[in-house]
Structure formats: C-alpha cells, structure tokens
C-alpha cells in the first residue's frame, strides 16, 4: 500500500455542476490529487469565478459550460473536448436540482425537470464519456446519489426517484461497462452545507432535526466528499465497481 495509489497525475476529470457546492469541493480535491479538472455549470460568471479561484490555488482547471439536460450541448461539449485533445478519464456526474412540493401539487413538467437534471443527465453524459473511455480501455464514472437513493422523504418525490435511479444506473453501468475497463460507483451524501439546502439550514427546526437524527450530530461539509471522490477516481479503488458509498454522518444506519 502506498499513497501513490491515490495519485491522479496525468488524469483528466470532468465534474458536472462544479461551479459551487459539492461539485466544486470534489473538483478541488481531485485537482489537489494531481488531476487536471474540467469544471462545469450553466451560470458562466459563477463558473469563471470558480476557475479563477482554483487557479489562484495553483490548481490545473478549465471550464466547459453546458446544461446537463441539453443533449445537443452535451454532445457538442464532448466533440470540442475531442477536437482539443482532452480525454475525460474520470467523470463525476454531480449536477442536480431539488425543490420541495407535495406530489398532489406537482405538475408533470416539474417532475420531468427533476428527473432530467438528476438522472437522465447522468445516463447521457455517462454514455458520451464511456464511448471514449472504452476506446482507451479505462475510465472511472462517479455518480452522485443521496441518502434518498435509499429512503423516501415527503415533498421531494421526483428527486427521491431520480436518486434511487442513480443507485441502479451505477450498477447498470458497472454491469455493462466493466468488461470495457470502466468502473462506475456512486457517492450518497447526507445533509450537506450547500446552496441547495439554504432554506433548510436557516430553518431552526430543521437544523435541530438534522442534528438530532444524524449520529455525528452535525451537517456535512462539501470538503468531506473530496477523499471519497479521490478514492473512487484513483487506483486505490481498482477492483471496486457498482457501489454507493454513503457520506452521511451515519444517518442511513439509524433511519
Ligand atoms: P448546489 O445547488 O449547491 O450546486 C449545484 C451545482 O449544479 C451548481 O454548480 C450548478 O451550476 C449545477 N447545475 C445545476 N443544474 C445544472 C444543469 N442543468 N446543468 C449544469 N449544471 C447544473 O448543489 P449541491 O452542491 O448541494 O449538490 C450537488 C449534487 O449533490 C446534486 O446532485 C445533489 O442532488 C447532490 N446531493 C446534495 C446533498 C446536499 O445536502 N447538498 C445531499 C445529497 C445529494 P450553476 O452554478 O451554474 O447553477
């Protein structure tokens, strides 16, 4: 065993939804482990800001703005990467959205929007990346699931369905792509301090509920996913595929 196992020098990672939040923290971690990291988001100004900040830390990062729900834009982005000789060795399917609405009030279009952003995006981007990884005989796909990959919570039905789907999509990718040299795994974060949870974080009752129910008695910080991403992206996980690793302060064990 050596720490070299975690070295990502010479690898390129594409992390979707990495202008902020969990994606940004995983992108920074992968870059610190030696990877060249391509950041992604839809808000170009926010993306540029993230690139500038990470470059300021001496990290090798670039930007590729596209909407993960726009298949034409995804294909164009991969074609541009091909044209410019950039191979994606590590794909982190992280971009996602969430909003709270009871199912009895949920429009079908809003259901579809959540499924598209959180689940279909991972299939489409995964497929485009895997075609290229297969040609080289290696690749690592890391999908971002959630506690809700395992359990349902009220008012976030399409999100729960999408994240449950992420768990099985990861297994399907592992089943189909293992022979091509591609490993697929997932990370299932618990309650994390990001913009996605802004309303919950500022709600004292919800904050107390999280701290009361999470065995570690606190929310997770985005940086706490970096080590798992590095593990799943590196040679350290060379015989791991189809797994979902929960980073939830122990919550899934007690709910
Ligand atoms: P944030 O809302 O903080 O950040 C979302 C990121 O995704 C941003 O970079 C945003 O880009 C990008 N994004 C959103 N929609 C799209 C799109 N259509 N195309 C491209 N990029 C997009 O979310 P988190 O960091 O909290 O969540 C990241 C992932 O982790 C999500 O999949 C989420 O479901 C999952 N997760 C989060 C948990 C949490 O507690 N926070 C718990 C479990 C899972 P832009 O800045 O351009 O809007």
UniProtKB/TrEMBL annotation:
SMART domains according to UniProt: PKS_KR
The answer to keyword Oxidoreductase applying to this record is: yes
Q: Where is the Ketoreductase domain?
A: 11-190
Query: Which residues fall in a coiled-coil region?
Result: none
Q: In which domain of life is the source organism classified?
A: Bacteria
- Example of a GO MF term: oxidoreductase activity, acting on the CH-OH group of donors, NAD or NADP as acceptor
InterPro entries (UniProt xref): KR_dom, NAD(P)-bd_dom_sf, Sc_DH/Rdtase_CS, SDR_fam
Q: Keywords for this entry?
A: Oxidoreductase
Q: Which family does it belong to?
A: Belongs to the short-chain dehydrogenases/reductases (SDR) family.
Write the protein's name.
SDR family oxidoreductase
From what organism does this protein derive? Paracoccus litorisediminis
